[in-house]
Design brief:
Blueprint lengths: L23 E3 L2 E3 L2 E6 L5 H17 L2 E6 L3 H9 L5 E4 L2 H7 L14 E6 L6 E5 L15 E5 L3 H12 L9 E5 L2 H9 L5 E5 L3 H7 L15 H10 L4 E5 L11 E5 L4 E5 L4 H13 L1 H4 L24 H9 L5 H25 L8 H15 L8
Parallel strand pairs: 3-4, 3-5, 8-9
Antiparallel strand pairs: 1-2, 5-13, 6-13, 7-10, 11-12
Helix pairs in contact: 4-7, 5-6, 8-10, 11-12
């Protein structure tokens, strides 16, 4: 069932007893009386959008949604895997989790069968915001500057490297400064501990940086620079060129060409019951007008704006809701089936590999080799080759 409550900042209180009340109902939508979502840090656009959705569910369906901020992708997914939360508003960490790479290539994790509910595409961009007082005008000027990383967050870190790859820069061309969380990283930008960090242009942290003495700017990534975009997509295949008209330091009549991908993406485990995710999806579709203005970027959750061919499959419950809304084609089904198949190939590869009891010091390398072999045998692409 969907009844998931997480108590306290540490997500658990010893000896606590939870009593679940009957599911709330509005029209033909049944939601639990309480749910927990996870998201990026407080103030991030993902957190703010999740809160706006939760507010709608409370007001329209009498379902209380608690949004739990978490500093990295592992922390965002752990409550879902432990059945203490049902939905996470993630970024590209969802893709890395599915693929079983970076932190998700650890023995405790492996490929995760997470699937899409809804995702957000709007006027904002996703890039490396750079303190204006650095004097950086173009991404190539960022060489030798300090780039923020978040410990345990491969999505943020890989995304930052994908952005600087546009200018032909690599990790070796910048000075990496690590922080404990996304919020701490952006405090580092404001406090002059770092010169640039990855973010959505509409995040609260980016806006705070804009009003700070350092300011913030977003370097142009021209759509017609094919070589630059090839370098970006080699590191981050989920990025696409986008004309950005909103966000910190961006004027609507002076758009900037940069990159984007759906963010946040609301995901759940594929093992969640179809009817439960169907109810959540349908509530988000029918309650759209009530939350679309509740947070910057929330308008991007509109059904017609969905990225139908991204890198994560839709949950069967979502598919059911989409079909009812007339927003599903045979081509969508074929594409989704292929992604579901990919998750099955990765799960089988992980099961076979872990049965060999590989030594800890060679576990990660061995898994990546086994993963590569399995994908090649299934004639599936591997962005981490």
């Amino acid at each position: 069932m969907l009844h998931r409550i997480v108590a306290g900042a540490t997500m658990a209180i010893a000896g606590a007893a939870f009593i679940f009340s009957p599911a709330a109902r509005a029209d033909d939508i049944k939601l639990p009386s309480s749910m927990a979502f996870t998201a990026y840090d407080t103030g991030s656009s993902g957190f703010n959008i999740a809160v706006a959705v939760g507010k709608m569910m409370q007001e329209k369906y009498k379902s209380s949604v608690r949004v739990l901020p978490a500093g990295n992708d592992v922390a965002r997914l752990a409550p879902l895997r432990a059945k203490r939360a049902v939905v996470s508003a993630m970024g590209t960490g969802s893709y890395f989790a599915q693929e079983g790479v970076f932190e998700f290539g650890a023995k405790e994790w492996g490929p995760q069968p997470i699937q899409l509910i809804l995702s957000t595409l709007d006027c904002n961009g996703l890039s490396v915001g750079i303190a204006r007082d650095t004097g950086v005008k173009d991404l190539k000027d960022f060489k030798g500057k300090r780039l923020g990383f978040v410990v345990g967050s491969p999505a943020l870190n890989q995304n930052a490297l994908a952005i600087i790859a546009f200018a032909g820069l690599t990790k070796n061309d910048v000075k990496i400064v690590e922080f404990a969380s996304y919020g701490a990283m952006w405090k580092g930008v404001i406090n002059n501990d770092v010169d640039g960090a990855f973010a959505s242009t509409i995040s609260g942290q980016a806006k705070e940086a804009e009003t700070s003495p350092r300011g913030v700017m977003w370097p142009t990534m021209a759509k017609d620079d094919k070589a630059g975009w090839e370098r970006v997509q080699k590191v981050g295949p989920f990025f696409t060129p986008h004309t950005v008209t909103c966000g910190a330091g961006i004027e609507k009549d002076k758009p900037i060409e940069m990159g984007t991908y759906p963010y946040p993406v609301f995901v759940a485990y594929g093992t969640e019951p179809t009817e439960d995710i169907y109810a959540i999806t349908k509530a988000m579709i029918q309650g759209y007008d009530q939350y679309k203005d509740g947070a910057p970027g929330a308008v991007g959750l509109e059904l017609k704006r969905q990225a139908m061919k991204w890198v994560i499959p839709f949950h069967p419950g979502t598919v059911k809701a989409f079909k009812e809304a007339g927003h599903w084609t045979d081509a969508d089904q074929s594409y989704n089936d292929a992604l579901i198949k990919r998750q099955g190939v990765l799960a089988a590869a992980w099961a076979a590999y872990t049965k060999t009891s590989p030594p800890d010091d060679k576990f990660a390398d061995g898994w990546m080799a086994a993963r590569k072999t399995a994908l090649a045998a299934a004639k599936l692409p591997d962005a981490f080759d």
